[in-house]
Design goal:
Shape: globular
Radius of gyration: 20 Å
Structural class: mainly alpha
Order of helices and strands: HHHHHHEEEHHHHHH
Strand order of the largest sheet: 1-3-2
Number of helices: 12
Strand content: under 5%
Number of strands: 3
Largest sheet: 3 strands, mixed
Helix content: over 70%
């Protein structure tokens, strides 16, 4: 590989980044995403559907544009890459939902404050992932063998996920929280939706800010898994970035959609572990076996759908009760 594979022009990058900024502004100031508000299931479902439709419309627009500029073959290839990357990111983000739920429950964060924490979490995730994707694309273009390290890491992570599928992390006493409490002046107790408070002329951080820090660190850990997984599908930074952004921007709505029924998807982690193992094996076998994108998409979709259906079937009696 002699350079970074990139089908996007500067206007395409600018247009998409502009779209992301506009949607964040609308969420923050038009729909009150920066204010305390309890998102109901119907609202979460509407937003989840809206983000899904926007992602599919973007993919259709990308296919149409590339068909007219570089030909139908590349257009179909890139649209499949985007769809595969988006599906992988969306599936792995469900694991984020489980951990976010544990964090909010452990710190007893009221539902009306969770929405505000997550919108700022999304803002931080966008910046972190943009840096990681661009850095990753450059590293892959300069040192192609890094893909094999990615593959080995994903295979290891998948196996580790299998072994730890029933383990729940101690979110209140982990290293991040201990370090934060050691170096930051923390004001315990309930301070509403505030991240900072003043006492006796001194500024203190609230527990809600510690929760936000933990959310950001959690997303960073998940990004270490998910971004290499997309590089197994494509090395095009525009495809990696756009599929990542659509999944991340829909994460908050997905959380509120699944929060009350997360226990019904306990088998999904097995499906996600299999996805990581499959992608890791695919990357390691690249010199000897080429797996087309449409086959990868089919395998990933089948594993995720199968684990979801199995979860719902296994918990059907629980749902009746």
């Amino acid at each position: 590989m002699t350079g970074i594979e990139n089908i996007a022009t500067a206007p395409m990058w600018a247009g998409f980044i502009g779209f992301v900024l506009v949607m964040l502004a609308v969420d923050l100031w038009v729909f009150g995403g920066n204010k305390a508000h309890k998102m109901k299931v119907r609202e979460a479902a509407s937003w989840s559907l809206a983000w899904l439709c926007l992602a599919l419309l973007f993919n259709l627009g990308l296919w149409w544009y590339l068909k007219g500029t570089v030909g139908p073959e590349i257009a179909e290839q890139k649209s499949l890459e985007f769809l595969s990357g988006y599906l992988i990111e969306k599936a792995l983000s469900v694991d984020n939902v489980f951990v976010f739920l544990l964090i909010f429950t452990a710190f007893q964060v009221p539902a009306e404050y969770q929405r505000r924490v997550l919108i700022y979490g999304v803002l931080g995730a966008i910046v972190m992932r943009a840096v990681m994707i661009l850095a990753g694309a450059w590293v892959v273009s300069e040192f192609h063998w890094v893909l094999y390290l990615f593959g080995a890491f994903l295979l290891y992570t998948g196996v580790k996920m299998f072994r730890a599928v029933d383990d729940e992390p101690d979110v209140k006493n982990n290293a991040v929280m201990k370090l934060a409490r050691r170096w930051l002046p923390v004001s315990e107790g309930n301070h509403g939706e505030k991240f900072f408070v003043k006492k006796d002329g001194k500024t203190f951080v609230t527990t809600l800010l510690l929760v936000l820090v933990l959310i950001e660190v959690t997303d960073l850990v998940f990004a270490v898994d998910s971004i290499p997984a997309i590089f197994a599908i494509t090395s095009d930074p525009f495809i990696v970035f756009t599929s990542n952004m659509f999944a991340i921007m829909g994460l908050r709505a997905l959380y509120f959609l699944l929060a009350d029924i997360a226990n019904r998807f306990h088998l999904l982690k097995f499906g996600l572990a299999l996805v990581l193992c499959f992608i890791g094996a695919k990357m390691l076998l690249m010199p000897w076996l080429h797996i087309p994108v449409h086959i990868s998409l089919t395998v990933v979709a089948t594993l995720i759908a199968g684990s979801v259906i199995a979860s719902l079937y296994a918990t059907r009696k629980q749902n009746k009760n």
